[in-house]
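Renewal narrative, Specific Aim 1. Our central claim is that a sequence can be written position by position from structural information alone. The example that follows is taken directly from our test logs and has not been curated for this report. It begins with the structure tokens describing the chain, in the order in which they were read.
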């Protein structure tokens, strides 16, 4: 999710590492990996042997593979075998996971946790703990191959209200809504840490009206206008699920409003062991909004929607109240005929975030049954796609400021493509402060859909009551934006009372 005027958001101070969709670390330039010898003690001969030079705390004039000279006092030198006492192995991590308490194992399994994938993702942690030289996380992060900015005509303009084009597209979009072919999905997961530990869905966006209230009212407005109950799905997390479900029950949410949980991950130490909190229990986390497609499939909501004739899913952040149903944009997506429509908006000042660029993608990562869209194949299983890349993934020397739009994290996706497309997700290693200690967790990003699907990009407004980019990340930003939030909510049918307002 882009964050206006926040240059620290994508700064790689949280070191990230690049992996393929199977959890295997991709080889990067200068990334020397593999089985290499390490300095070890020869108990029989009392001397060292090694397969390569290893840096150690000894006289720099001594050769790393030579026995110490007579009379040399090495009592202060760390024993190489003792150095390795904290080094983890795949089998040891597997055993740690296998011996988790049964309730936690069941919870992880229900959330789609993949033990073998985590073990594979942990391989670079094991290697670093052994002292193996590897490329920096920053370098592993960067995409390979040529990256180009969008070309003329790649970024479409949103239909202008009052124009003939807007009227034509709005009519087409309204018919889709009346046939019950759209579902709206908001991301309400995460760790509930940005607003003082309070679940954001239950924070008052306007006086006495929570973000959840406003989303429910918008849904009711559109369902009544179209004469069809538009499915509203909320992706929750382990931290937000119970409070949101309780709030939905107390508000008497209709049956077409449903919650589903994103995945659950296990944090690791820098050495690759399970990270445990101050209570001694394994530390879990929500692995990023890239979980949404898999979580939606697990829930059964998507497959049943498609079986009933559903064709489109609109995905947006809960806190971006500007990202609402818009019949003209729905008609625009229909007319373009692509798998996904990505909303971008103009950058202002020092805005940072994911940008659309041409880059290589895996050819088999975007196969959609029945799709007839042409693809720019480069051969050898590689195609060129206009896709969203975060700035930390761009090659050195590529000027992100040359692209004057960025991703709003709002996507309109063909339901069949969302259900069936194979996405080669990149997992990123993220260092996270947990109390006073540093943990490692692996996350993925939703915008990687654009590396697997043919995408259309449409520039949407960010000012006034027509804004479609109105993110609220903390209480200070909410206070600054309250006037605009009020105007947008009023213009989109969010301020009407719910039938059940009890809290």
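The sequence written for that structure reads:
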């Amino acid at each position: 999710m882009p964050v206006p005027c926040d240059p620290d958001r994508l700064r790689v101070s949280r070191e990230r590492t690049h992996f393929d969709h199977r959890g295997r670390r991709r080889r990067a330039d200068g990334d020397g990996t593999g089985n290499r010898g390490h300095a070890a003690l020869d108990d029989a001969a009392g001397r060292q042997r090694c397969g390569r030079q290893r840096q150690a705390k000894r006289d720099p004039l001594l050769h790393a593979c030579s026995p110490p000279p007579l009379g040399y006092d090495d009592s202060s030198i760390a024993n190489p075998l003792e150095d390795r006492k904290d080094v983890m192995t795949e089998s040891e991590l597997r055993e740690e996971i296998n011996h988790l308490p049964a309730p936690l194992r069941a919870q992880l399994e229900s959330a789609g946790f993949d033990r073998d994938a985590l073990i594979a993702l942990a391989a670079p942690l094991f290697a670093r703990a052994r002292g193996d030289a590897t490329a920096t996380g920053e370098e592993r992060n960067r995409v390979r191959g040529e990256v180009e900015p969008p070309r003329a005509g790649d970024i479409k303009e949103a239909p202008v209200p009052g124009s003939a084009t807007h009227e034509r597209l709005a009519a087409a979009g309204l018919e889709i809504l009346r046939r019950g072919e759209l579902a709206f999905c908001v991301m309400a997961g995460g760790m509930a840490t940005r607003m003082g530990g309070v679940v954001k869905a239950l924070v008052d966006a306007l006086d006495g009206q929570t973000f959840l209230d406003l989303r429910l009212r918008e849904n009711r407005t559109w369902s009544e206008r179209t004469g069809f109950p538009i499915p509203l799905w909320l992706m929750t997390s382990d931290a937000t699920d119970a409070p949101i479900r309780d709030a939905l029950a107390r508000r008497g949410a209709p049956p077409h409003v449903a919650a589903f949980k994103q995945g659950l991950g296990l944090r690791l130490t820098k050495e690759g062991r399970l990270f445990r909190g101050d209570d001694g229990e394994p530390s879990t986390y929500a692995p990023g909004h890239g979980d949404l497609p898999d979580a939606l499939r697990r829930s059964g909501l998507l497959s049943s929607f498609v079986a009933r004739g559903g064709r489109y899913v609109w995905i947006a952040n809960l806190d971006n109240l500007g990202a609402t149903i818009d019949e003209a944009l729905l008609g625009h997506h229909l007319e373009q005929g692509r798998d996904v429509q990505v909303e971008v908006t103009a950058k202002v000042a020092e805005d940072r975030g994911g940008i659309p660029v041409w880059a290589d993608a895996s050819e088999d990562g975007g196969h959609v049954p029945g799709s007839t869209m042409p693809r720019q194949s480069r051969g050898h299983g590689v195609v060129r796609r206009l896709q969203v890349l975060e700035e930390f993934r761009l090659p050195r020397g590529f000027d992100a400021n040359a692209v004057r739009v960025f991703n709003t994290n709002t996507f309109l996706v063909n339901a069949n493509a969302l259900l069936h497309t194979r996405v080669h997700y990149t997992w990123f290693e993220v260092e996270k402060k947990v109390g006073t200690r540093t943990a490692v967790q692996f996350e993925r990003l939703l915008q990687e859909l654009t590396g697997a699907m043919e995408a259309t990009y449409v520039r949407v407004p960010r000012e006034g009551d027509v804004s479609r980019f109105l993110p609220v990340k903390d209480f200070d930003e909410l206070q600054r934006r309250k006037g605009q939030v009020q105007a947008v909510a009023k213009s989109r049918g969010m301020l009407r009372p719910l039938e059940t307002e009890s809290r």
